[in-house]
Recover the amino acids of this structure.
């Protein structure tokens, strides 16, 4: 079903009578409100999607093509700057 530009994919798990709801087609860094109603049960939920623009602190560029060599990452990123491992150079 499509509601206000968002797609809802609903999957029932009959064994435990749980409802698994996936929201797809949402935009990054946006606030959303969800209202669920079934019979007399109601639930309201507000949430914000993650921003898909993240700071890059260090970039490791891998050689192009395929490789059978193991890549060992020894340096982690931080919340202030992620360690991006990629095959292509990302420019701002």
């Amino acid at each position: 079903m499509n509601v206000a530009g968002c797609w809802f994919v609903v999957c029932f798990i009959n064994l435990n009578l749980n409802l698994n709801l996936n929201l797809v087609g949402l935009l990054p860094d946006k606030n959303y409100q969800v209202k669920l109603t079934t019979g007399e049960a109601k639930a309201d939920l507000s949430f914000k999607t993650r921003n898909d623009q993240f700071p890059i602190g260090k970039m490791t560029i891998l050689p192009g093509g395929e490789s059978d060599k193991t890549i060992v990452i020894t340096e982690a990123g931080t919340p202030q700057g992620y360690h991006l491992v990629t095959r292509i150079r990302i420019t701002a």
Remarks:
- The chain has two domains: 2-48, 56-86.
- Residues 56-86 form one domain.
